[in-house]
Amino acid sequence: MTSHWKAVLGIVLVFLFGCASGWLSRSMVAYHQTSTFLQRGPEGVAKLLERRMTHDLDLDANQQQQIHACFMENVNQRRQLQLQIQPQIQLLNRQTLQQINAVLRPDQRERFQANLVEFRQRFGKSPFNPNAESQPASPPANPGTNNPPPP
User: What are 126's strand-pairing partners?
Assistant: First the structure.
């Protein structure tokens, strides 16, 4: 291989390495930003929206205060709604899990239950879902039925 081609190959490899490291770095930053954003919950989302509105619309202090009050009222109302509908959501989730369990073979059902436990440990309770069920879904007593398990 001539030195000309070695130089070209070296430049191409440096370019590809730069692209790969840039992509990896950006992915890591995006993951960190998303994790931080999700940990802050609805208040964090409201704060982000307030900052954007303040910057984009050049809000004065009085407007910022009023908009903050609107967002906080929205957060509180959403929490109340979530508390009201949470039992229905939990029932629907249990029914869906029973339907899925009815379709799976016993070995698949075991793996599915293990996946649910892992999922709930990682994502179960969060600022966006503080009332999530903390117990893993148990396999249905009668896999062929769509009746929810007794409470």
Answer: 129
